[in-house]
Amino acid sequence: MEIEKQIKELNNIISRQSSTTSGKDDINGLAIFEHFIPYELLSRIFCYLNSNELVVCHLVCKRWNELIKEYVWRKKAELISGQTFPFDEKINWVSYYLLCAKNAFNRNLLLSDKVVARDDNECDHGAFETIEFDKNENPPPINVMPFPEDLVVNDQIRCSISSPLSFSGAKKSFRIHLLKEGLTEKILNNIQPIIKVSVWFCCKLDGKEADFSCYTRLLGRPYPEDPDASAFVMRSAQFNKRLNNVDQKGKWFQIITFSSALLNSKTMAKD
């Protein structure tokens, strides 16, 4: 069904271009070294070019320009994100270009240098120590179980650990500005892509029990109605995972707040 849909979209582009070309122009942009390249294959090749190379291809000929702007950028964004973006005339190719060029998908936004740490009376970021390990240091020398494999990013593991001197109820909170991460207003409002937030947590091997809480919300939305739903009690040093899908129903939500609390000195977390 998806293949038929893609072919239909390509045929629509071809029919529009055919009405403005004739003679030798009919295969202009489709013949490379005297070999005819079908539209379907050409568009697939374009999808695997990097963003800068694809922008240069706009300049080759009118046929390539229209094909890339009307079809390829959206399909490239779908391949990168793993999500389906229905055709929307209100969204031009620049929005999809930004998604691809800024690598807005499948990465840890909390590690972005654009993330803002909240600084208020409720949060005490100084109560935590952020540390990095080489993946070969697994398990690391901090008295915890080995890290799950999917926590390794660029051969590094980054985590936060509560200070032995931290007080009960220490909390950290971050705000993620989605527009600064490559998403655009039109993408957020019209397509509303899926945004997932996950956190791994565990207590130390010498800890009999540890408490941890976390929640994620769109700025402007209420806090969780049931605070207990985001609170966890750990009685072993095994890593646990909490995964949330950010509910983005409605428009104009562009900032995510991520908060977590390490409620005693024997807890650590990997965002």
From TrEMBL:
<dbReference type="GO" id="GO:0019005">
    <property type="term" value="C:SCF ubiquitin ligase complex"/>
</dbReference>
<dbReference type="InterPro" id="IPR039752">
    <property type="entry name" value="F-box_only"/>
</dbReference>
<dbReference type="GO" id="GO:0061630">
    <property type="term" value="F:ubiquitin protein ligase activity"/>
</dbReference>
<dbReference type="InterPro" id="IPR001810">
    <property type="entry name" value="F-box_dom"/>
</dbReference>
<dbReference type="InterPro" id="IPR036047">
    <property type="entry name" value="F-box-like_dom_sf"/>
</dbReference>
<dbReference type="GO" id="GO:0005737">
    <property type="term" value="C:cytoplasm"/>
</dbReference>
<dbReference type="Pfam" id="PF12937">
    <property type="entry name" value="F-box-like"/>
</dbReference>
<dbReference type="GO" id="GO:0036503">
    <property type="term" value="P:ERAD pathway"/>
</dbReference>
<dbReference type="GO" id="GO:0006516">
    <property type="term" value="P:glycoprotein catabolic process"/>
</dbReference>
<feature type="domain" description="F-box">
    <location>
        <begin position="31"/>
        <end position="76"/>
    </location>
</feature>
<protein>
    <recommendedName>
        <fullName>F-box domain-containing protein</fullName>
    </recommendedName>
</protein>
<dbReference type="GO" id="GO:0031146">
    <property type="term" value="P:SCF-dependent proteasomal ubiquitin-dependent protein catabolic process"/>
</dbReference>
